Each structure stands twice: as structure tokens, then as C-alpha cells.
Amino acid sequence: MFFSQDCTLCRPHLRCMKPCAKLNCPVRHLRRIIYYLDSAIHTLDICIYFFTFTELAEAIIRAKNRNVVVRIILEDSMTHTDKSQIMNFYKEGIKPVFKSLDVLVHHKFVIIDNNIVMTGSINWTKSAFFGNFENVLVTNESAIVKPFVNEFERILTMLTATTTETNSETLDIH
Amino acid sequence: MFFSQDCTLCRPHLRCMKPCAKLNCPVRHLRRIIYYLDSAIHTLDICIYFFTFTELAEAIIRAKNRNVVVRIILEDSMTHTDKSQIMNFYKEGIKPVFKSLDVLVHHKFVIIDNNIVMTGSINWTKSAFFGNFENVLVTNESAIVKPFVNEFERILTMLTATTTETNSETLDIH
Questions:
Q1: Which GO molecular function terms does the record list (chains A, B) (predicted)?
Q2: Of the candidates A44, A88, A150, B16, which lies 20 to 30 Å from B64 by C-alpha distance?
């Protein structure tokens, strides 16, 4: 999936979630990504640098509500913006993992049921989907999926060792 | 290829370009990327948001010097930083294409001989390679490579329509 400057024109199609005739209408791509998220049965592992896009957050919350195990890793410095979806996740019982580091968690990938990977250059923000030149690659090839599965576990282990308590304190979540 | 926080420790290995025993030593990954760049025979198509990494620029210049056709698309707003490799490319006769837009050229991919794609989350900067959590996927699967080839041509056509003259004037290159 490719996104580019001409996607800006398709922003109105988001209101009704109906793509236009253009093959690269970003609403078409968005619907495809949501389709994959909605297809999750067991697990949804998400590692995204910057996540503000409501429609994608809603698909993740739907997954949680049908008992899919949802795990989210975010970049700490991007969780402090007004548009971050972090509070919506917390309200729905999903606790994203993030940690203040002197480096960036710059990934933009999602793993569905340990079977499909979506990865690329795109952060999950409306402006990235509707205007930027971006790409998303979707594959179920195990030679690609498996390393992402392992890396997600590795990062999660690395960040959760001391993260959970800090986050809960900072966000005053009970 | 995955990069993460522990890669920071491997920064000294860059001096001699020798990786340590760690499987994810970033110098090991860097050498692999340079190996692919050095293997280019016909074309090297590069579309990178932020490009400051000297060792990678040198590999591209080597390709140019062995008569590989090198085409580079960069994000305009990132070419004004001190560390941008743009002037080094110009000095060597490579003219990157960039254009001031109200959206970002956020891709991070390279196509070698229309046959191999390297794509992922990583910008070509030293800090991204030595510390950030990042990924690079390398594939020669034509179902993946071909769309990237088409998209590169599409972006290049879109940007070059009015770009070349503007760039030359702005940079005062003769």
C-alpha cells in the first residue's frame, strides 16, 4: 500500500469510510488495515512510534472487546501529545507499554495472530494516511513474520522490566 | 534486520567497521546494507526521509563512480540540516530530487537493480542505526519489489515536473 500527496484530496471520504474510485484512495487502504485488525482472533501485537488515528484505535478496542489479547508498545515521548490514543486505550482496559529512554521506539508494525505483519514507514496518524508519501507492506510469509514476533517479545520484555509501575504512577490510573 | 537500544554500545565498532559477536550488532547490519549497495550493477533508486549517514552516502557515491544510475529522492525539509548528505552528492554529480510540499516524503526504501528492496522504519542516520528501535526488511520477492519500483517512478515523475530548476537555483550548483 502506498500513500502520497494526492491522498490529501481523499480526506472527505473518511467521513463515510467509503473510498473513491482511485486505487490508492487512503480510505481503501485504511479499510484494508481495519479489515486485518478486525480479523484478529487470538492476539494483536502493536509497536507504533506515533499513534493518534481514532478509527484504528477503535478497531483495536473492538479486538480487545472480543477477547483478543492486545499488547501495544508506544514511543514514550509521543504519548504526551493531546492527540495520542493512550487515554482511550487505558479507558478500555488496554495498557500500552512505553518507557522514557534516550533513544526512540521508531517501529511502525503490527502483528496479527502471530501470522500477519503490517510494517512500513507510516505512523498511525491522520496526516500520514492523508497526504504523506508513505508505505505499508502486509505479509503472512513466515520468514518475515517470525522475526517480527521475536523482536516484539524482546522489546516488550526489555521495556516491561521496570515500566509498569512508572506508567501507572505517571498517569494516575487506578 | 532489527536495531534496538543495546545497539548504542556498538557505536565504537563503526570506527573499524568490524561487528562484535552480537548477532544484532548494527555494524553487521550496516555492512550487509553496504554489501547490497555495492552489489548494484545497473540502478540504485533511493527514497529516504532523512539521510545523514556518511558510510552509506559513500557506498552510493561508489555506485555512481562505477556507472550505476543513481537516483535519490529526499524530503525537502530534511535537506537543510548541517548533516544532510546532499552537498556530498552534488559534489559527486548526483542530484537528489526534493521539493517543498505541505506533506512529508516519509519513505525509507532503496531499490537495487529493480530487483531488491530494502524498506522499513529506519532513516539513514547514525543515531537511528546506533540506538533506536528500528527495522529494515530486505527482499527480492517480485510481488513486493515491483510495486516499489512503480511507486518510485511515480514519485519521481511527480516531483521532477517543476523541481530541477528550483533546486539548482536554491543550491547555486553549477
A1: RNA endonuclease activity producing 5'-phosphomonoesters, hydrolytic mechanism
A2: B16
